[in-house]
Amino acid sequence: MSLTFTKQGVLPGFSLTLGFTVLYLCLIVLIPLSATFLKAATLGWEGFWSVITQPRVLASYRLTFGASLAGASINAVFGLLVAWVLVRYEFPGKGLIDALVDLPFALPTAVAGISLATLYSSKGWIGKLLAPYGLKITYTPLGIVVALTFIGLPFVVRTVQPILEEFEAELEEAAASLGATRWQTFTRVILPALAPGLLTGFALAFARAVGEYGSVIFIAGNIPMVSEITPLLIITKLEQYDYAGATALAVSMLVVSFLLLLTINALQRWSELRKA
Amino acid sequence: MSAIPASLHPHPAHVHTHALTEPAWVRWLLTGLALLFLIGFLFLPLAVVFGQAFSKGWSVFWEALSEENALLAARLTLITALIAVPLNMIFGIAAAWCIAKFQFPGKSLLITLIDLPFSVSPVVAGLIYVLMFGLQGWLGPWLQDHDIKLIFAVPGIVLATIFVTFPFVARELIPLMQAQGTEEEEAALVLGASGWQIFWHVTLPNIRWGLLYGVILCNARAMGEFGAVSVVSGHIRGMTNTLPLHVEILYNEYNSAAAFAVASLLACLALVTLAAKTFLEWRLINDTTTAEATGGGA
B273 near B279, Cβ under 8 Å? Predict the structure, then answer.
C-alpha cells in the first residue's frame, strides 16, 4: 500500500504511523464531533432555530462576540506596542518580560479567573483605583473584556514579533532618505508589512476568546441577559438536563469555530506569501 | 505559536541614526505604556495569586495544600496527565513521522484536522463526550447495561483532557521534522538499520528538544484544563475533582486563601513550564540552524 501512496516511500513505517494517526484522530476528535452534529440533526431545523434564537441565547451571543472583539482589538493595539518595544528598544528585564508574555498560555484558566476577579474587584489592587471614578469591572461585561484581553495577550505579540525582527532596515532607510518622517515611515512602510501578522494574531485572539470559559466565569458575575457568555449557557442547559438545547448551542459555536479556523488558515497563507 | 519563535533569533544590529529610530521621549513613552499594560494584565494577576495565597499566613497555606481533598485532587490531576500526555506524545510522533517523511494526498487536510481541537471551546470539548457516553448519549444505554461509567467519572476526565491537549506534540514535531528532511534516515536505511533503529538512533536524537517542548506544553495544559474537565467531572469531591476544579470549589465557598493556595501551586507549574520553554526554544534554534547548515532542509 505504501508503494502506491508514496513517491519517496523508502523509509519504513508509513502505513503503521498513518493508520494510527487516522484511527486516533477519528476516535478522539472526528467521531465525537460528528456525533454532536448528528444529535443536533435530530432536533430538526426548526427545533435548532428556536433554541438558538431565544432572547437569552441571542444576548449571550452578543456578549460573547462583542467582548471577544473588544478583547482582540485591545490586544491588536497593545500587542503591537509590546512586540515593538521588545524588538526595537533595550531596557532592563527585557528577557524576563519576553518570557512572561506567554504566561496566559501556561497559567490554568481557573487560576487566571480567580486572580483577575480579585485584582479588579472594588477591593482589589486595580479595582480600588478605579472605584472612586464609578468604574466597576467585576460582575459587568467590562470584566469579561478584561479576562479575554488577558488570555489573548500572547497571540498578537507572538505573530507580530518575528515579522518585526526580520524587517529589513533598508526599507526604513530608503523611506527616510526620500524624506519621510518617522511617523510616515511607520504608517506607510512598516505597518503594511505587519498587517497580515497583526490580522492573524487578532483572529487567533478572537477565536480563543469566543470559546473561553475558565478565566471569564469568576469575573463575569454570570447574570442572564447581562453577563452570561455562551459557553456558560451551554453548561447551564446541561445542568438543567436540556441536552437538546446544549447541543444546539454547541453546534452553533462549532460552526463559528470552523469558520474562524478557515479564516485563520487563509490569513496565515497570506502572511507566508508576503514573506516570500 | 510556531515551534521556533523567531523572537530568539539574534537581534539585527540597529543603526541608531535619527532617521531610523524615534526621539528618546517617544521611546520612553512607548516603553512605559507597554509596561503599564503588562503590569495590569500580566504581572499583577500573577502577583495576586501568591499575595492572596499567603494572605492568612503559612499555616492556612499549608493546611489548604495538605488537606485530604486537595491531595486527592492533586493525585487525580497527576493520573490524568500521566495517561493523556504519553498517549498524545505517541500520537504526535506517529503523525509527524508520516506527515514529515512521506508524500500522500490529503496531507494538508490531515494537518488541519489535527489542529481542530485548538479551535473548539473547552466547554464544547467536554460536551461532545457527554453526548457520546453520557446517559442521554449515543452509547449511554449500552454502557449502563454493562455497568460502565465514563461520564462523571475518571475516564471522562481523561478523555476530555486528551481532546484539549491533542495537537500539542504533533504541531511542534511536524514543522521540525519537515525542516530536517529524510536524508539522515535514508542514509541509515542504506547502512542496514531497521525502522526502529532508525527512529531510535537517528530521528529521536534530532527531535528530542522539540519533543520535550511539545510534551511540556501538553502537560501544562493537561494539568491546568478547567472548562472541558468541568463539564464531564460531576464535581464529586475526593473522587472526580482535579486541582483546577478544587480551586473553583474553594473559591465559590468564599475560602479565598485556600483557593489561592492551591492556585499558587498551579501558578508555579506555569512558571516552571515557561522557564523550561524558554530554555528549549534556545536549544531548538541551535538544532534547526544545524539542520539548515548541513543542508537537511526538505
Answer: no
ipTM above 0.95, yes or no: no
Return the DSSP state at A224: T
Burial class (CB in 10 A: 0-12, 13-18, 19+), B60: middle
- Residues of chain A contacting B273 with CB distance shorter than 8 Å: 106
Which chain A residue has its CA at the smallest distance from B254's CA?
Answer: A114
Partners of A247 on chain B (C-beta within 8 Å) are 127, 131
> For residues B204 and B193, what is the distance between their CA atoms, to the nearest angstrom?
14
DSSP per-residue string spanning A105-141: HHS-HHHHHHHHHHHTSTTSTTHHHHGGGT---TTSH
What is the per-residue burial (b if ≥16 Cβ within 10 Å, else e) of A92-116?
eeeeebbbbbbbbbbbbbbbbbbbb
Query: Rounded to an integer, what distance in angstroms lies between the CA atom of residue B114 and that of residue B107?
Result: 11
SS3 B115: helix
Give the gyration radius of chain B's Cα atoms. Answer: 23
Q: What is the pLDDT along chain A (276 residues), one digit of tens a residue?
A: 444 444 456 889 899 999 999 999 999 999 999 999 999 998 899 999 999 999 999 999 999 999 999 999 999 999 999 999 999 999 999 999 999 999 999 999 999 999 999 999 989 999 999 989 989 999 999 999 999 999 999 999 999 999 999 988 888 889 988 988 888 999 999 999 999 999 999 999 999 999 999 999 999 988 889 999 999 999 999 989 899 999 999 999 999 999 999 999 898 888 888 766
Distance between CA A214 and CA B123 in Å, rounded?
A: 9
Cα–Cα dist B145/A12, whole Å: 43
Nearest to A97 among B38, B223, B230 (CB): B38
